[in-house]
């Protein structure tokens, strides 16, 4: 197994999500993929936002709205939805699910954010 290509299970978030705030931003390695990871983990968007494109800014706003809903809620489950580990879902104690598709660079939150 090539560990360089292994996508880890977010164990830290599964244990500490409801107790520790973790920030995610596009300026770190991974760019927009890091914002998708932030959505999956229910993280806090990093500020300041500089030179963010339209899609990145939309993800940052969506992450802020998601975090407002689940900041103090336990992450209860994480699962890979395909063999390539490109599609993932996290579930939170209030019933919120976040599904990220790494191939499409998309995220779906249920119930939808307002």
Task: Describe what this molecule looks like in 3D.
By secondary structure, this protein is α+β, with helices and mostly antiparallel strands. It has one domain. Helices cover 28% and strands 23% of the residues. The chain has 3 helices and 6 strands; from the N terminus they run αβαβαββββ. It has helices at residues 11-16, 32-40, 54-70; strands spanning 23-24, 44-45, 75-80, 87-92, 97-101, 106-110. A 4-stranded antiparallel β-sheet has the order 3-4-5-6. Helix 2 runs parallel beside helix 3. The longest helix has 17 residues, at 54-70. 22% of the residues are buried. The model has no long low-confidence stretch (mean pLDDT 85).
What's the helix and strand layout?
Layout: H1 11-16, E1 23-24, H2 32-40, E2 44-45, H3 54-70, E3 75-80, E4 87-92, E5 97-101, E6 106-110
Parallel strand pairs: 1-2
Antiparallel strand pairs: 3-4, 4-5, 5-6
Helix pairs in contact: 2-3
Question: What's this model, at a glance?
Answer:
With 114 residues, this protein is of the alpha+beta class.
What count of helical segments does DSSP give?
3
The separation of the N and C termini measures: 42 Å
How would you describe the shape?
Answer: globular
Amount of helix: 25-40%
Q: Output mean pLDDT.
A: 85
Note the quaternary state here.
single chain
In total, how many beta strands?
Answer: 6
Calculate Rg over CA atoms: 13 Å
Total individual domains: 1
